[in-house]
Amino acid sequence: MNPLKANGVPQTNGEGGDPVTLFEVVRMGKSAMQSVVDDWIESYKQDRDIALLDLINFFIQCSGCKGTVRIEMFRNMQNAEIIRKMTEEFDEDSGDYPLTMPGPLWKKFRYNFCEFICVLIRQCQYSIIYDEYLMDTVISLLTGLSDSQVRAFRHTSTLTSVIARSMKLMTALVNVALNLSIHQDNTQRQYEAERNKMAGKRANEKLELLLQKRKELQENQDEIENMMNSIFKGIFVHRYRDAIAEIRAICIEEIGVWMKMYSDAFLNDSYLKYVGWTLHDRQGEVRLKCLKALQNLYTNRELFPKLELFTNRFKDRIVSMTLDKEYDVAVEAIRLITLILQGSEDALSNEDCENVYHLVYSAHRPVAVAAGEFLHRKLFSRHDPQAEEELAKRRGRSSPNGNLLRMLVLFFLESELHEHAAYLVDSLWESSQELLKDWECMTELLLEEPVQGEEVLSDRQESSLIELMVCTIRQAAEAHPPVGRGTGKRVLTAKERKTQIDDKNKLTEHFIMALPMLLSKYQADSEKVANLLQIPMFFDLDVYSAGRMEKHLDALLKQIRLVVEKHIETDVLEACSKTYSILCSEEYTIMNRVDIARSQLIDEITDRFTHSVEDLLQEAEEADDDDIYNVLSTLKRLTAFHNAHDLTRWDLFGSCYRLLKAGIEQGAMPEQIAVQALQCSHYSILWQLVKITEGTPSKEDLVALRRVVKSFLAVCQQCLSNVNTPVKEQAFMLLCDLLMVFSHQLVSGGREGLEALVFNPDSTLQNELLTFILDHVFIDQDDENQSDEEDEANKIEALHKRRNLLAAFSKLIIYDIVDMPAAADIFKHYMKYYNDYGDIIKETLSKTRQSDKILCAKTLILSLQQVLTHPLHTLTHPGIKELARRFALTFGLDQIKTREAVATLHKDGIEFAFKYQNPHGAEFPPPNLAFLEVLSEFSSKLLRQDKKTVHSYLEKFMSESMSERREDVWLPLISYRNSLLTGGEDGDRMSVTSGASSKTSSIRSKKGRTPIHKSKRIEGGSISHTETYTEEESSVEASWLRGNDSLQTPGALTTPQLTSTVLRENPRQAADTHLPDHDSEPGSENDYVHNRGLMEDDAEPIFEDVMMSSRGQLEDMNEEFEDTMVIDLPPSRNRRERAELRPDFFDSALFKNVLKINIF
């Protein structure tokens, strides 16, 4: 193949012809690289200048350069001159060049490119590679290209020299060097063997040939090493700190390959320091390449001695990278730490290990799984299977994993994150699945009797083991990570699905027999029982009937019944209720057996409850503690069951209603009984509604339910004045819920027949609800009489409770159940309580504006009026203007959309400001004139032509004397008038003079812009868009002059969704854009420059390459270096933490399916 003519110009076969240049041949990839290289070598032997010129143009064209090096340039010009000439013909604006262009064609080209270089060096290693012409020319050219300011040249040279010319070329050179080394060793052994022969048998000619061969191999070895040194010092040393992260990543990736392949030459401190320094790189991509390069080294145990000094020096940095902000980097850092642990446990301190341990609780699953692998290696590394099996045989256990489970429990307890068992199990699931699925061993540890000489599980350890066991059962049955890890449930593969089915059958068969025994042993411990009762949720209930295990079902039902009779804790009772609900599913044949047991239990509890209520009501004030306990205990059980089961046939509402009425009339009902009675009555009403909506109700059924709802709403309304706060809060929440359920939306969706059940709260009830919110939500912490020693979690719990109260009332406003003006009392607290309720108030404001823009604007102005007229308000109130500014921001940037609402707001504000005359005379300002200063915050939201209309409306209220006033007391009028004139048509500004000082305000009027033509019209308002704004202005002004302020109350809303708008802190801080101080980082490059512990005596510090383009330097300076992430712990159920981490109920999910009863 000879693709170039003698003058160096590419041959052309015409359009659509065969590829003729080396670049085209490699790009098309139609020919095998072996034949391409053989053809090129043949042409090189015939005319090395022409062949080498083709190779040079190949590198130039790979950079995307359109220029061509001609033969006269190659022979008469230096490399620097050739590169300068090519640079002049290079167009770098596109940013794309063959080695980085997307698409399958160019992906194939990159592969062909590397293969070509690799085959070329392999084929040349025994011949022309040593001619002192080919390699010298190529290396010189690539070194020059690597220093070019053209990024494509630099990248191509680096890719060629580091991947192809370093990994492929240099890897090929390494292979050549290794082969030479092997040949040298063989030759030396042959020479020694021949020389040690007796003089008579020694062949002198063979000795001379072996000496000659050894000398030749040594010369070749020296030449290869010189080539590698030229590439390393000429290209790598400069480019490993290139401004382009991709080039830096290539360098680090390939130096790792050299170290692994030729460890004798490259795996030493002189080369390892570059990887260590680059661990501090700003780009996660480069840091990732460093870690992967090191992983390849630490995988080989034989290399550990050479890595000992590096490990000691950079271990802290690697451990810190487990918290890298790039999750991929953090995962690889943990894996590298695991490899270091496998190689030498002494290399990591206890503190290093603890830094990785807590990552098993990370919300990011890959990080947690990698940390779980580390924990598995560390926790179970000293496991002695033989000793464990002997111990298991002595104890009669079926599994030898007893001690391993004990160690896991101890770790769980010592981690002090006891309520995150599901996340610990998920982290260990891939590495320790066999252990976590050993439910037989777990059960044996829990059920076995203590043996003398063996330490038994403590109460805390038993609770932790039960919690871990339940989490492993859930993980096996559901086959997906817990909530908070992962983006959602993924589709299982056939193999995963089969494993899930097998695991579910295995756990069902085991716990069907073991669960009754566990409940029998721990039935007195509420925490353990509540956890154990979650296990039936994951059963394959068909096993009961298919395996003829009804006797075990009877044993389970018996134990659940005993638990219900023994406990009154809400968690336990709800767990029992949910278990009954699962076992009563109609799809299983065991439903009848369970339903009978459930009915018998409810009959007994209801009978005791009815008698206890009678006794309590008869004794009234003389009731003792036993009477109260009997009513409360039975009522708690019934309430828990009524949540998940339809108990309407037991008519619990009647007894609960009697208790509530007696408490209201006598005023002595214990608060817990009142709270439970309210909740039970609420469930009863909802179940009755479900029955009616699912069938065809009669008129009598509707009348009966309406009577029940009406009476219960009246009781709840009366309970709002109860002395006990829990009772009031419960009554308030139930009122809000029932008003939502029985609102005008009940008849939507073709349910017009339920019109009789719709309840609209009267003004009295609305006022009482609003008063409750103001008295119980908008309060300061100091008002709660909390002691200094009170747990912070209790304060957060109280805050969440107040947020739920406010959210419940806000829903009523949004759905037009409570009149929108009631929101004014909420909106006025937006600034003061922004941290606590800002998201709820803002979302309420947004949804009400979507419902009715005009009425919402009137509500906003009303809230500002309330703040101004508050008795504690002064004219210098610091928050009212800021509150108005925040309100103005909520109108957004679309002035056309909010035009009518903003105009109405100004109209009401002006009328309020001049509503009352000053009793001292007309020369004094009206009492509410200060409100105009607040109103000026909304002037910027007016369109230019509307400002003129509003100004005209303002002048209607102004007398001639007011226009001439310039004293300080008239400042609000002056500032508001000027805010309307700013940006409007030409008009005069008012100046201010006060006392001896003179203040002038002369703002130039901007010339009116050309009228904007519009064709849009807004119906139903006083402001409409016609062909030009001129007609709009006249229509608006006319409507205002008529004083038309009639507004219609909005009708039923179209089910808006109320969602929380809590602003999350942006993890990308501004400080991230600054460069770090490398001098302060141990193990950094500058640290090594001053402490040559890891450098050779003749090593020189590497400084920033002077060939970086100015643009590249700016990009480099702006890159982030903050590389640590915050480990987000998943939500906790800990009693100490649940208040802080409990999700708000101010959620869109609460506004959907209001008729659907939520079981738990």
Structure description:
Belongs to the SCC3 family. Part of the cohesin complex which is composed of a heterodimer between a SMC1 protein (SMC1A or SMC1B) and SMC3, which are attached via their hinge domain, and RAD21 which link them at their heads, and one STAG protein. Residues 236-321 form the SCD domain. Keywords: Cell cycle, Cell division, Chromosome, Chromosome partition, Coiled coil, Nucleus. Residues 1074-1087 have a biased composition (Basic and acidic residues). It is a single chain. With 1160 residues, this protein is mainly α. The protein is 60% helix and 1% strand. It is built from 49 helices and two strands. The chain has a two-stranded antiparallel sheet with strand order 1-2. Strand 1 (992-994) and strand 2 form a beta hairpin. Helix 8 (151-195) packs parallel to helix 10 (245-261). It is flat and about 130 Å long. 38% of the residues are buried. Mean pLDDT is 77; it is low at 1-17, 152-167 and 984-1160.
Total count of strands: 2
SS-derived structural category? mainly alpha
**Mean pLDDT figure:** 77
Calculate the terminal CA-CA distance, rounded to whole Å: 79 Å
Query: Portion of residues in helices?
Result: 55-70%
Number of helices: 49
Q: How do the strands of the widest beta sheet line up side by side? A: 1-2
The largest pleated sheet is described as: 2 strands, antiparallel
Low-confidence stretches: 1-17, 152-167, 984-1160
Overall shape: it is flat
Q: How much of the sequence is in beta strands? A: under 5%
Radius of gyration: 41 Å
